[in-house]
Amino acid sequence: MALITSEIKMIMFDLSGTTVYDDTGVRDCLYKAAQEYKLNVTPDEILLHMGTNKIHLYQFLISRSRGNNIDFRDFEKSLDPATYEEAKAIYDRYVEIMIAHYKKECREVEGASDVFKWCHKNGIKVATDTGFHNDVTSAIMDATGWVRDGLVDLSVDLDMVSEGKGRPAPFMIFHAMNHFNIQNVREVLKIGDTPADMLEGYNAGCRAVIGVLSGPRPVTAWGKYWHTHVIESVKDLPALIEGGYIV
Hints:
Elements: E1 10-14, H1 25-36, H2 43-48, H3 54-65, H4 84-104, H5 112-121, E2 125-129, H6 134-144, E3 154-155, H7 171-179, E4 188-192, H8 195-204, E5 208-212, H9 219-222, E6 229-231, H10 237-242
Parallel strand pairs: 1-2, 1-4, 2-3, 4-5, 5-6
Helix pairs in contact: 1-4, 3-4, 4-6
């Protein structure tokens, strides 16, 4: 039996690469800060592990550079406290670079605002989550005006969950569900463009976990993680739902 819109109470949208345009800007900012601190990491390694808490990402990368081969599925379970101070220093520099980037260039993926309006027309709450803390998330929301204009009902960032445990952990989705008093994950859809997004949706038990091809990561990077659908862009989401492709 096909899903009808009345059965969806909330959609959790990723930001960068899904609703906010990103070629490789986020990766480049992360890499620039890493280079300044002489962290032995490649741009591709950063790209494949994005969508996560950025302090924890640097901790993860520092550990891997020291020979600790941590499975990405255990990202939020295997943080070495000894890497925190170095990671936090790199992160603080990254925030400066990232905010400067978004002040110069921050625009939505084509059709994102229209999809948010479609959601509201169909009684669906619009939530966003991200691998950013409040400082960078606020820069995005200031630039897009989505919260101010009522297009996004709740913007969830890492400062809203315990210990900043972001994706692939499911806690930002649960935070939004609690905010809207949604008690069944079968009423929630997740959409994003990273392995972290796919694992977050899977770990939360969302009814559908939808990957988009609009981000800088190739489908071969995130497609091997559990998902239910692949669409070209967020603008194709209403047609996916209205066409009865989600059950």
